[in-house]
């Protein structure tokens, strides 16, 4: 599995490269934005996951994340310093999948990497599934119908599209900006931030046992929302 690692601190880069190689990963190491852009242009199809330092000598991990997400849906994890953590929301808005704060344990990073890779594998599989499950809620994609404990839940077209976005991004924190972008892309209609709040509230009222303590569509404070664990069946 091919990992693009962009890190300008040589000691961190070499130590991390060694540890990841021991886990069976193939590492492509770059120390700056310029070198990373060249790899992305020439070797994108081989890249399984990207690890981007946020602060680089000739730019930032943000622009690399933006570039790679425009080209393909390759998972991205940011490596951030403690004082950069507050800026991670910007990265999530660009489509980053996770972040880990320096200093970190290599085992924790590898666990995060495997979790993201599993999620992407499962999402690819889910795109071919007829039924998606989020706890007691089941989405029958061929019929575009939603059931909870075998009882149909009537959703509007936009509520259904929002539900599908959560179902296809299980376990991933989605910022409000990402959700608005997804809805715009899928529906081709304007939805503002206030409208999104209303639709999430309506979904919770229809789906949750206790809308005040949601477990199907969870709030991640300061970052956005996350769907509960999703399972799929054919």
Automatic annotation (TrEMBL):
SUPFAM superfamilies hit by this protein:
C-terminal effector domain of the bipartite response regulators, CheY-like
Which domain of life does the UniProt lineage start with? Bacteria
At what positions is 4-aspartylphosphate found?
53
DNA-binding region in chain numbering: 129-229
Q: What is its main location?
A: cytoplasm
Q: What is this protein called?
A: Response regulator transcription factor
Instruction: Alphabetically list the UniProt keywords.
Output: DNA-binding, Phosphoprotein, Transcription, Transcription regulation, Two-component regulatory system
Where found in the cell? Cytoplasm
């Amino acid at each position: 599995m091919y990992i693009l690692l962009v890190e300008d601190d040589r000691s961190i880069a070499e130590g991390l490269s060694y540890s990841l190689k021991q886990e069976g990963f193939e590492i492509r190491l770059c120390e700056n934005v310029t070198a990373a852009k060249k790899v992305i242009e020439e070797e994108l199809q081989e890249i399984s996951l990207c690890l981007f330092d946020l602060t680089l000598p000739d730019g930032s991990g943000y622009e690399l994340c933006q570039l790679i997400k425009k080209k393909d849906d390759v998972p991205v994890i940011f490596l951030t310093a403690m004082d950069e953590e507050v800026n991670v929301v910007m990265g999530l808005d660009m489509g980053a999948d996770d972040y880990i704060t320096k200093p970190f344990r290599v085992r924790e990073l590898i666990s995060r990497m495997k979790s993201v890779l599993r999620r992407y594998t499962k999402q690819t599989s889910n795109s071919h599934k007829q039924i998606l499950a989020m706890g007691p809620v089941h989405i029958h994609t061929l019929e575009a119908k939603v059931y909870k404990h075998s009882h149909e839940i009537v959703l509007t077209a936009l509520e259904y599209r929002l539900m599908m976005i959560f179902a296809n991004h299980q376990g991933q924190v989605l910022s409000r900006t990402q959700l608005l972008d997804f809805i715009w892309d899928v529906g081709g209609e304007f939805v503002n931030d206030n409208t999104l709040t209303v639709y999430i509230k309506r979904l919770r009222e229809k789906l949750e046992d206790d809308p005040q303590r949601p477990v199907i569509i969870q709030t991640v404070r300061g970052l956005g929302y996350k769907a509960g664990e999703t399972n799929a069946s054919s």
